[in-house]
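Re: weekly structure request thread

Next one in the queue (157 aa):
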Amino acid sequence: MNRALTILLCICLTLAGCMGDVKSPQMEPESEPALVVEGTDNQSLQYWNAAPMSMGNISVISFNNSSGYVNLTLELSAFFHDPILWERGFVNYSLVYNNETVFSVTQQENQTLYYINLTNISGNLTIDVKSSGSDDKTTAEPGDFFIAKTEYKMYSA
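Done, posted below.
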């Protein structure tokens, strides 16, 4: 009886390798979008003047006539004190595409991280930064300042 059971077990083990799953149709893996352009744009300013002063700057991001979607990461840090004689300073950061503002934020204090995703971009993207501030010489605080660090990546559509 043991010999018959051993032979039956060997036959079952031998045939077990022949039984397999029915193959399902192979799906083609989705191709990842190609990275077209990546870069950074850094802007910062610290005010050392006692009276209020303003500045403005424009940067243009060119995508070399490519089209696709753009992922931007903006790290915006700002400190503007509250003076007695005039209004508190600020920084305004805007993204402009085809003469339309697609993102805008105004900040007076804190450090904030923004994630911006834009689709169907085929031309240039403009970064517009405006700021106003001063330095209060009567306090130990530093002069007003902002730091805007932008990292961007464009992927093909």
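The beta strands are 35-46, 53-61, 68-79, 90-97, 100-107, 109-121, 125-133, 145-156. The chain has a mean pLDDT of 85.
Next request, please.
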